[in-house]
Amino acid sequence: MTGRTPTARRTRAAAALAGVLLLGGLLAGCSGSEEPEDGGAASGASAAPPPSSSAGPAGPAASGSPSAAVVTSMTTFRSPTGNISCYLAPVQGADPYARCDLAEQRWDVREPEGGCDDTWGGGGGSYGSVGVGGGDAEPLCVGDTIADPSAPTLAYGSSITMEPLTCTSVSDKVGMTCENSTTGHGFTVRKEKVELF
Question: 16: Cβ–Cβ under 8 A, 6 or more apart, which residues?
């Protein structure tokens, strides 16, 4: 990987780590527990499904009512429109990682100087991918997608937290926001726009 920028190397490392986490979850049948902040019943996504499997009918705020859930194992979810698919995943020895992919987007972010051997998630067109962990939020250079039409829907106004990361399905006009409360870094994505902060 000579000639790659530190950002490109971090992006590829994050994507590789996500793949390892997915494979590990598949092999171990990873099961964790979720405790909603309101003390109610778990939201139903306690067995962290890999992006290619079904999470079942009950998922994060699947009922359509706003809620807040705290998760400790990998959790996939999508926006009510189905255009945005995301996951929260633990990372050993570091802050967890949030990634969101858009099936359709209209924004364009300049490709890294070192290029991208896979799909550039910040390019204009039909696909977008962004992520945030303990560092800066950034568009991703990835060779996969986490889009899963069977993933549980995160209702507008609802949030999922894996400390210190929280993802909120804000509205159809605002999109999905994922933010690290420790660093203040994160992103807001929707079809028309991506904001990195």
Answer: none
Q: Which residue carries 């971090």 as its tokens? A: 10
The alpha helices in 114-160, defined as continuous H runs, are none
What is residue 21's three-state secondary structure?
helix
Distances (CA, A) of 171 to 15, 102, 175: 27, 15, 5
| End-to-end Cα spacing for the chain | 28
| Residue from 46, 99, 97, 94 nearest 72 by CA | 46
* Cβ contacts of 187 within 8 Å, gap of 6 or more: 100, 130, 132, 137, 177, 178, 179, 194, 195, 196, 197
Which of 24, 143, 27, 21 has its CA nearest to residue 94? Answer: 21
User: Could you give the CA distance from residue 120 to residue 105 in angstroms, rounded to a whole number?
Assistant: 13
pLDDT tens per residue across span 20-72: 343 333 333 333 333 333 333 223 222 222 333 333 333 454 445 568 899 99
Smallest CA-to-CA distance from 153 within 88, 47, 64 is with 64
Whether the model pTM is above 0.90: no
